């Protein structure tokens, strides 16, 4: 499996790349080839006096390459120009990536680019599963908030097709997952369940699949605002990553996600793995 790791060369972006535990977790789920991508923004010109942006970025990526190769991965590097989230998404599509990884905080010392905004735009447009890796917010030497990326998963589901597609990610995440919490939030707008359609029963059926893989699993049905309740569950259970499906509305225009997915990406304290809908031919 291939993964794209997007970096703005900030200290925060380096945290994932330099974390042996994070790299081990990616290896456990089947990632064996990493593509390091950094984007020179369109408004930064090569001829600016005293600024060899491309050369500096290539030298930085070569340092990262050696770290990741030492961890056992094949590595390719890409220094490109353009709009960061569009170029990152384009490279992920071109190479057939199974995952895109981006840090959720950090300001680049080179061009004052904020990786947080890139993460937000990737969440709105990604066509591959996106891991938003949460980095310490206020630190001169930041570290990842949760090193064991997939050890304790919280999966929020509304039983939609998109949520089922996100749940299917456990087919490979299970190799790094020890515990899982399955959460469903009922809202006043939900239709009343039928006798054969109780949320607890449906969650229990999903839990049984995970337990067959040796994953200790709990189920949790809540009432209220979905984003607030999912974030409350994150606070209570402290997962290393929250797994959710997105609702993409257009492949052509940059439209918002469903508000629940966007809220979780923006407000979660830990990592978030966002799985876009299945692509149609």
From TrEMBL:
<dbReference type="InterPro" id="IPR014729">
    <property type="entry name" value="Rossmann-like_a/b/a_fold"/>
</dbReference>
<dbReference type="InterPro" id="IPR006016">
    <property type="entry name" value="UspA"/>
</dbReference>
<dbReference type="InterPro" id="IPR006015">
    <property type="entry name" value="Universal_stress_UspA"/>
</dbReference>
<feature type="domain" description="UspA">
    <location>
        <begin position="3"/>
        <end position="132"/>
    </location>
</feature>
<feature type="domain" description="UspA">
    <location>
        <begin position="150"/>
        <end position="276"/>
    </location>
</feature>
<protein>
    <submittedName>
        <fullName>Nucleotide-binding universal stress protein, UspA family</fullName>
    </submittedName>
</protein>
<comment type="similarity">
    <text>Belongs to the universal stress protein A family.</text>
</comment>
<dbReference type="Pfam" id="PF00582">
    <property type="entry name" value="Usp"/>
</dbReference>
